[in-house]
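ok trying again, last paste got cut off:
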Amino acid sequence: MAHNRDEEETSWLLATLPAAEFRRLARQLEPVWLTAGQVLHEPEQNIPYVYFPCGGLISLVTPFGEDKTVEVGLIGREGMVGLPVFLGGKDAPFRAVVHGTGQALRMPADELRKAVSRSRLLTDLLLRYTNAFLVQVAQTAACRSLHPVANRYCYWLLMAHDRMGSDHLPFTQKLLAMMMAVRLASVTEAASALRGAGLIRYTRGGINILDRPGLEAVCCPCYRVIKKHFDRLLA
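nice, full thing came through this time. structure:
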């Protein structure tokens, strides 16, 4: 996934803004640390802040009942948490939960609305991000319906790898099964096959990517569709 700054701890999305535009926006941005398990907003509740992650990973999930959720999108350094605020809403139908610890730049929702009203450049950027994110949501839904668990497992690993920028992904097989809304046994089988092929290694502490090109080769086309749109956004 392309970006135009060398620093690891930065928002790739905001880094595409001209320097002067970013400096104006930075007055309303507050650095915060996001920790695994932290909930940034709940369904049907007011979204107080938007977040531009500089590291880590945030999952958007739709809750079903008390103990079941289905993931609808992943957000990392390429994006923004709180997109409904930009689109004119005050809440969202899903929960935003942190899965990978990292830093983010936080802005009050009202300040984002003001910034967008003042800046055509920021508006255009967030419109392009909205388009790319909608592609991700639609492609994820199609992948869930059409492709076997093994392909979807590769897809999730590659998406997380892009967004976290680390070969170590601190996720358990149980968490991935929950995010993918499949049985743990199915995820374990997929992981075992990839480990046997020398593409990943996993322990209780998480998953290590050993062969990124190999993962891309066995993944379904869904990943490449999404990557193309985000590379275009961040170019």
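cool. Residues 148-219 form a domain with the Arc Repressor Mutant, subunit A fold (CATH 1.10.10.10). The chain has nine helices and ten strands.
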